[in-house]
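BUG: 3D viewer hangs when loading the predicted structure for this chain

Environment: internal workstation, default settings.
Expected: structure renders.
Actual: progress bar stalls at 90%.

Input used:
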Amino acid sequence: MDKDSVQDKTNVQEPLDKKNRRGKRGSRNGKKLSDKVETINNKNSRNKLTEIKQNFVDKSSQMKNKKFKKIKDDSSRNNNENFPYSKKNKTSNSFKKKTLKKAPERKESKLYNNLVKSLSQMDIKKNDNKNDKNNDNFTFPKTIKRNEMKKILKQQINNTEKEYITGTIKINNIFSRYAYVSIDDKNINDDILIEGYRDRNRAMEKDVVVVELKQKTNWIQKSNGNYQKTAKVVCILEKVHTRKAIGILENHDEVIKFRPRDPKFPILTIDTETLPDNYDKNKIFMAKIKNWSAPNFCTGKILSIVGNIGDFDVETEAILLENGLDVTPYDDELMKDIPSIDYQLSNDDFKEREDLRNNCIFTIDPATAVDLDDAVSCEKLNNGNYKVGVHIADVTHFLKTNTKINERISKRATTIYLVNRVYHMLPKSLCQLCSLSPGNDKLGFSIIWEMTPDAQIISHKFSKTIINSSCQMSYEQAQKLIDNNKLKINEFNDKLNIKNGYKINDLSIIVNDLYKLSKILRNKRFNDGALKIDQPKIHVVLDESTKLPVTYKLEERLDSNNLIEEFMLLANMTVAKHIYKKFPNTALLRHHNPPKEINITRTFNSLRNFGINLNTNSAGELQASIEKLRPIDDDNDEFKVENFFIQSRMMVIQTLCAQSMMRANYICSGNMDDELLLHHYALNVPFYTHFTSPIRRYADCIVHRLLYSSLTGEPMPTDWSSELCTRLANNCNHMKNNAKNAQEKSTELYFAQLVGQNGPTETLAVVMYIKEQSIDAILCHVGMTIKIELSNVKNDATVNYTNDDSIPTITVKWNTDEVEQVINVFSIIRVNISKHPKNYSLRTTLLPPKFCNSE
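Structure tokens produced before the viewer hung:
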């Protein structure tokens, strides 16, 4: 969990009702590939193709005498039922990816691939003979070359009405035919709809694209009378998506299909030359798009066999691969550019550094932390003020620019945190050398403030330092010092292993001084208009020997967490202001746009229907509204039930608010025309950056170099420019988001395994969204979002959906006891959770209501 993190969420949109469509729709390509095969008049070729198909079936006993379910449309998506995962196999410790060698050329595969090519060409040839109106559904629109498009965008930059608009593709997770282009422009409230694979024009999730708006007659009228703009992609400025996916192989009609797990990825017709000799339906494969010749026809090749479906290690590796995360060890050639694992600091390393080794400096981190990026200190001065220090590991002293290892690290950009292990951004030797472990001399980059007792900042300075941490403390241990529980302090005194002659009382005084100052800083920050949306986070606990899940718990936020967060935020804000002043065109900053009006208004109106009024005029006013809704801070039994309902309601409110927010991103300061646009919405500060975690974030390494250059006058590398800063910022954004997604998927995987081990469980959930066929809810004791399909209770109840007065309601008349259950947003419902027998997804079923204790 980032000590200086701000919640980043994006809004998820549903496809619009087609009934409101203006203008006529083009015809669809309903023909299947099997139908087109019938048009081939070469009988021998057809017989040979049948023989190839039979060879495919015979290669695996698992596939013998079985037929796969037919696919109606190559680009359609079905539920997870189509991924026939086997039961969990014995866990393997092997984590090596099996890379495929090119298969020997075979006559059968040649004929097969030639046939696939001819089918594709025949598609296009047939479509060319159709009139232009129908032809649109069979071919992609013409694209504009990237360099030409960049010139066009520059020419129209001052135009009020722009012909071409730049944005990021977001594909609907359920209906992949629909995508939206998110525009990072506060003046454009609505995302632009891309309807159909043709208009998406081969663009993939998160690609940066340029779209051309369609005529208004092709826009879609919404229920409120406004119009949803529609467009087509005419240029892919940046292919962010790797065009790779994880999935399974299926024998479909006369061809081999690759069905990806990701519903946003197209189904591929596979080149048989890339197929291994020993594949079967119980394997997970990695494939890549080879040629996307028509909207409904895409070919690909197999890159590797990931492993057996259901194998726990394989499933974890699949998460890494599908998020494009490289975790291969750094090779020896790259390691030549950094010190070896037995490197000892020398006097050369200590030159021009302030020696703070005699100061009482210590770290406060999660109990399991290995990468110790930051340490803190506090000393009371004779004038009554405090000298407060934040000391950050000096990674860039060892990690030099213009080296191959730096280039590789910049591409990884972030440490990856999965449930079962951590994949470090830096090589192990560099992590150990830089990490601020207690009792060892370490190099730091420090910020030191003089503060008054009421936390007013008198002055600050930056300094390269030598430090020697006195103690590695966990948040829980620091909290005991804050609570000043002498009994508990004595219990863990020996566990702290305090170095450098300091005692537990020394640490207690410093921690409490820092806590008092942090409370004042925090109150001032929120009084000045900051916003923080805390969403529930689940922590899965593993058995130390088997590494299998044994239990779970919701992450608890302590005062000690807030203490560290405040000083890390202060450090980042102090550095951001400084580097922007020195490098106004090339400073790497952390930027957070205000939410789009349409998104926050939608949330506001939805909650207002249930008597919850949020003030969304500013971040500070939204924060104040949320604070008023928090539960009573009292442990008395009379408040427990009430607090449970309030806490459950807060889960929904904060999740909905988070989904309305824009995602915070790294940017190059020179890309903003106005300094005011650099403002960070949630923190409500003019400048912000990341400086405090260089061991696990490459963005922080860049900021360290900028800060050092500004202090010493030593120039940045000759290739440093706004273009390079932008490119690095974009990659840091992309990898940070991918790593976060992998972390969430890993948590879901292990939680599903825990449910599978323990068997079906009855629990409580609070309703967040209501739709005609399903309910989205949050598990009250877990904080995890679930989907409840109402079709699962069709034999046990009658379900009726209404939306009177814009309040979606589900009425369930249960057959047993003639119970009628009315479900709205915020309703507490009883559900049964079980693990899917064939994969690691959860199945949730609505249960009849009964009195449930909140505990």
